[in-house]
Amino acid sequence: MRILGIETSCDETAASVVDAGNSGFNVRAHVISSQIPQHAKYGGVVPEVAAREHVKNIIPTLSYALKKAEAKPAQIGLIAVTKGPGLMTSLAVGVQTAAALSYAWDTPLIGVNHMEGHILSNWVRNPRIRFPVLNLVVSGGHTELVLMTGHGKYKLLGKTRDDAAGEAFDKVAKILHLPYPGGPSIQRAAEQGNPASVAFPRPMLRESNYEFSFAGLKTSVLYLVQKRKKLSGKDRADIAASFQQAVVDVLVGKTLRAARQYRVKSVLLAGGVAANRPLRKTLKHSLNKELPKVIFSTPPFEFCTDNATMIAVAGYFNAKRKKFSRWQTLDADPNWELV
Fold it and tell me: Whole-prediction pTM value?
């Protein structure tokens, strides 16, 4: 099955063409039109700006993906599009485009949950994954631990009560006057710092549940910066490294505890923050040390942030379960929860 994936949930206009089948996935085209330059001056995503950029970029991005994949409309067997969650005005551009193409091409259509796309991005390159699976999903808008017992079978174990990890990275970067987007900036600064230099709290790490909270940690950084008033480059690096280490410790600690409790066979890391190298390295090392029989998987870097390949893959698994949509009734759902 040849699938056209479309992703416009936030500030990335993305299209992908994927050949999918029982033997795996072949990514024929993976195209992302980034809006980082448009939003950098604001220090975050502006919904109105994002929507206008999607309108401008969606057709050129789709055309380029089809050309790169050497695929004609008649060869597309399924259109998969992000239905939610995300920014309503951004989602609407992708959903309406996908519905129009489904009608014009007479091609089946599936509305995909964005978070399920992040989780299933692990299947693009790793056929070894075995159930039950524990998913640590970390992005700008979500931090969740999700138990997965089969495709489409999810149980939420815990999520953030306030700021998501990615959101905290962005806010701390702004406090430290580091460039947008905050995640990569914090990671680069942290490479020159000492992660043990500041004793930041590890929020909720010792609590028995699987909830998260990063707002207090972010506030600790703010108070420290206000107290010091003037920061040197070394100060910024040390604060960035210490903050990043605190986030990693919480994420890894809770994931390990959940993996033991639910006796999972695989642990998957997904979402934009999955591109953070210390998080990837620490989680892999900790699992290998404490639960060596558990399979660990995280997507290649190009499939961690928002992209349409993960939407195409999720579309394939939904199609196998006959979860099709109708172009006449497909609507964006900015608050669509996976479970």
Answer: 0.95
